[in-house]
Queue: 2 jobs
Job 1
Amino acid sequence: MHWTDVDGLRMPVLLAGHPGLELCNTWAGWGHPPGPHREWLRGYDHLATWAGHASLLDVPAVRRLRAAARREPAEAELALAAARSFRAALRTLLLDRGDAGAFRAVAAQARRAAAAARLTADADGVVSWTLSPDNPLDLPLLACARSAADLLCTPARAHVRACPGADCGWLFLDPRGRRRWCTMAVCGNRAKVRAYANRH
């Protein structure tokens, strides 16, 4: 099964090994004709909930964002559209490092994330980076952009693979060079069934 229930919303299972790749996996059937059934980020609630599901935001932040989206639906739609656009550019760049247009789009959001980053310390003195964007509804996108930029700067980028499964195209990290499918239980088994049917 490709999905799980998170706070009453269907979310794609996490199987990619990195939040940036997980964002790309919120669309099903890359390279196939678009359709509403392919979209996991169907509304801003889904985007905010996904960011928590992918461990980019904590539960209180997700709740605040969902409440803010209800107060400002137009701003939430803009933030959702920007996240979807970033998702497409990021996937293109991960699979084609020479795509200059995709790089510019990803780098622009990474710059916004860097500009919104603040070094903070909690009551116990634990220091961490937090994001304080001008528009709080951009928080899921910027958190993902920051994480994706980190991936792009590491050797792990060379281990990104796309599932060849029919109507899939999900991304995952394959550092050992042995993984073919996003998940053997779904895409791998479907391919085995088709191969068996073709032989018989």
Job 2
Amino acid sequence: MKKSKKGFNYFEAFVNLSKYSLSSAEILHKTLAEFKASELPNKVKEMHEIEHSADIAKHELMNHLVKEFLPPIEREDIITLAQGIDDVTDCVEDVLLFINMFNIKEIRSGILKFTELISTLCKSLHDALVEFQNFKNSKTLHGKIVEINHLEEEGDGLYMEMMRGLYSSSKDAIELMTWTEILHRLEKCCDKCEDVADTMEQIVMKNS
């Protein structure tokens, strides 16, 4: 592991940020699996507390970086990676916010497959970031990044399949609008996970 002279470990901080993403993804999946519209405000509050804690952790990292004389990797890469992980958490929260905002009363068939995939992606991202701490000597990091890319492709396929199913089964304008937005945000969660994986890969290449 790489540490700054002051002892702040940026790589551990990345792992910590990814724990918030994973927690938010697990809450999203559990909330929709046990869906009760009356419980949504409480679940939104719980989700926001995780997102807020993630923001605090990200700001702490940034505060250390401002004072850092010689960070272990380029400042721009630290900022991009930290922001990318935080974006994953934000996007997962967005899904639940929109479900609540649109006053959804029932979860469409297949949505749980999508939220389960996002949870798997966030777990894979966390595992990759654990391995990223030793990126110069790691024998498994590349495989973990490839796994994230494959899962994101699975998300793309699921998005197209579910969009087609939505427009094949409904003519209701409000239903089409609301679920189009929700599906778009589910797919965006997958994209954001892949963005973090791509950033890790670029950092490895730059430091090889």
